[in-house]
Each structure stands twice: as structure tokens, then as C-alpha cells.
Amino acid sequence: QVQLVESGGGLVQAGGSLRLSCAASGRTFRSYAMGWFRQAPGKEREFVSGISWNGGYTAYTDSVKGRFTISRDNAKNTVYLQMNSLKPEDMALYYCAARVGGSGVFTSGYQYWGQGTQVTVSS
What we know:
mainly beta, four-stranded antiparallel sheet
């Protein structure tokens, strides 16, 4: 069983930055592919970014490329999402997810989810 706890959300003006963190329990964190997803009110949850178990591969949805950066620290069992140049359309509840199995980056198939952290962007 994996438990994920997100933090770092908050209120920021458009153009500002936030860094989300996701702390994972368990000694096998380094074997998980990790991802960040978001869900805005009235919309479906969407993939934002993913990272392979060793950080060697990353992926981003087109709307955040060049603005968001995913990273991980396996020694700290933590994955991060640095978000720069935030836009009002980035406002959503952001979820961290873990996927067991596979060596790449994944946009789906995650087995474990956190509770989410709210990101609010004012225009």
C-alpha cells in the first residue's frame, strides 16, 4: 500500500509560481512511476506530467510544456511539480499518483492517489 500526501498549493496571481510536493510512504518509492493530474470544477481529471522511476524520462501535457517541471528525490520519497508562469486556466485540484510496474512514463494506469492540493490562480 502506498500513501501519498500533496502540499504546496495555494493562491497565486497570474504569472506567479508554486511548487507542489508529494510525499510517499513505503520503502519502494523508487520503483514507482509518478504523475501529477488536475481536475477543475466541471471538468474531467487530466494528466499534467509524469516521471519515470529514476527520473530519466518525463512527460507533460501540451498546455504546461515550458512552464512546469516535474522532478523526484528518491532519497526523500518525494516528487515535485514546479509551476511557473501560472495562468487562470491552471487553477484546479492537483493530485499526485503512483504507478507500480513499468520503466517509463505513463499517462494512465495509476493505482495510488493522494487527496489533492488546491491551486488557485487570480487574474
